[in-house]
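Subject: complex prediction, re-run

Hi both,

The earlier run crashed halfway through, so I resubmitted it with identical inputs.
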Amino acid sequence: MAETAVATKTVKLVITRQDAPDSAPYTEEFEVPYRANMNVISALMEIQRNPKKVDGQKTAPVCWESNCLEEVCGACSMVINGKPRQACSSLIDQLEQPVRLAPMKTFPVVRDLVINRERMFNALKRVKAWIPIDGTYDLGPGPRMAETKRQWAYELSKCMTCGVCLESCPNVNDRNSFIGPAAISQVRLFNAHPTGEMNKEERLEALMEDGGIEGCGNSQNCVRSCPKGIPLTTSIAAINKDTTKHLFKKWLGM
Amino acid sequence: MKGNSYLSRKIHSLLGVIPLGLFIIEHMITNYSAYEEGAQGFKDSVKFLNDLPLVFFLELFGIWLPLLFHGVYGLYVAYQSNLNTGRFQYGRNWFFTLQRISGVITFIFIFWHLYQTRLQVMLGNVTHEELGNQMHSITTNGFYFVFYVIGIIAATFHFSNGMWAFLVSWGITIGPRAQRISSYIFMGVFVIVALLFLLSLTAFRGDEFKEAASAALQMTNLV
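This time it finished cleanly. Structure:
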């Protein structure tokens, strides 16, 4: 009689875990049944369904964050096989096993793979990454944006504040006050907008204070790591030019 | 460090080019006279520099103070960086790491080099005319020769890669193409500058620099 049983394929995972923000991290190994087209999120869901380690012992289910599952929200960023990226777009078939998952330690770890990206949102507030149009009366339509400009500005607008560029940057750490590449690129985006441009000095000056753009050391890891392919180093250099011009204008009282 | 780190970092960056970048080129040309024109040529070059008007102030504001600020603040900049080439093995990340390592090596090298040469002149142990002989006694010592070769490579790399970074940090080379071409140019500069310094270093080993190396000259060689 022919053999009908199929050898069950499994996915091996090694996960860096942490129970609380202050507790010590530790690793646990898992083995979950394989399904076609799995991604890291669905592997984590398998662990949630049956929270058992590879040795059969029960453990607390692994915590992670995710929302959109299509790489536009930035919530599920984590370190996968050594590189920071989104868990949703990391397909198991394309990953070396065991798949090693760890939180992005540049940010405070909340629990397991969950991190607190608040510093990125604070950075956006600091550089005023928005277009102020509120007023007490109708300001009317703003100036038009050239189509050629809109095309490259659109690329910058793809930023989802996922934190991968900060995780890969050697100058974003406890000893350094560097704001990180994402917010600098957003300054370029809002300074390119015809209405946003009216407040461009405010944004440049926010980057010319302690912990501003000067923290960039040109390692250029950010542009190599960005999941959205945003030209971060071009943005940084362009804002370097704008801040330099602004610096000389201020000195000369222009 | 309190205060505006943007300004400190900009001053650090500017001083690395003006005057320190200009000085390293000047130093290269002066040294190269030892290779090209021998002991007398080197003496003449040193004399030319010392005959410059207000040479004390040129040295103070053109070398000593900028070097002190760039060196000390540079150590702080290096301290502020994580080196993550293990995780991110990209070319520019290696250069980022090498820039910091070469900066620290250069700091130690320049400190020792100044002690052996400029400080000995200041203390009166060596005259300007005897600097060639002093270099001879340094470079014929195997340990110091290797130390100087490492120091020269670190310093010239730090200068060349620093020029590349300067052009980015001041917004001159913006796009990836401009930055790539600039990196080719400055790696070429690194090779040329390092080569000229190394040729001068080997020239100092020649016998014509040997004459009357006094006991006082030998004392700075600790090894």
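The longest helix of chain B spans residues 20-50.

- K.
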